[in-house]
Specification:
Elements (H helix, E strand, L loop, with lengths): L14 H19 L3 H18 L9 H23 L17 H16 L3 H12 L4 H8 L3 H17 L1 H7 L3 H12 L1
Helix pairs in contact: 1-2, 1-3, 2-3, 4-8, 4-9, 5-7, 6-7
Length: 190
């Protein structure tokens, strides 16, 4: 009678062959730990890197799946803890304010509406508004140029501004969202 001989031990798998064979299964495990497929791929890559570094120290290659799964869980837990430490509750959001420059389209709409409203004014009032606010002349310089008194300029400009405030087309533009309306009012008052 012959004694049974032990079957020859198969050589342990190489890291590359292990990843080729078990990679899809391990990726499913990683996907179950994260909500994002891209994060799952990154998580698996990190766990496989840790496994590769410890490959020579792993004695029982039959337990490789368990080792990689534990590396996945530990890595995910570390990421979760690290993320929680990096996030702090604050009273004010860190995002910068909207672009402080006004929207050119809104500015142009206000200018167009303003000019259409100015064109509706009587010729004398229109001349005084244009000289005072578009040419930025003083009341005295406007009065001298037009050959009228300063009081005439003041009263005519006051009546013109009242008409502009009542203009329905202009007020429609000025009822736009708050930032545009504020800029338009500033433009009208200047």
């Amino acid at each position: 009678m012959t004694t049974p001989t032990a079957a020859p031990k198969a050589p342990p798998p190489t890291f590359t062959s292990y990843v080729r064979e078990r990679g899809p299964i391990l990726l499913r495990t990683a996907r179950s730990l994260t909500a994002n497929p891209s994060d799952a791929e990154d998580l698996l890559q990190t766990a496989l890197t840790k496994t590769y570094l410890a490959w020579e120290r792993i004695e029982d290659h039959r337990a490789l799946d368990g080792y990689v799964r534990r590396a996945l869980i530990n890595t995910r837990t570390s990421q979760w803890r690290k993320r929680r430490v990096d996030e702090y509750a604050v009273d004010e959001l860190p995002e910068p304010d909207r672009d402080p420059r006004p929207d050119p389209a809104e500015q142009q709409a206000v200018r167009d509406a303003m000019w259409r409203a100015i064109v509706k004014l009587p010729e004398r009032q229109r001349a005084m508004v244009v000289l005072r606010y578009y040419e930025d002349m003083s009341e005295a310089a406007t009065a001298e140029l037009l050959g009228v008194s300063v009081g005439t300029v003041k009263s005519a400009v006051s009546r013109a501004l009242a008409k502009l405030r009542e203009d329905s087309d202009l007020s429609g533009v000025l009822r736009a969202p708050a930032p545009a309306a504020a800029r338009a009012r500033h433009t009208m008052a200047a």
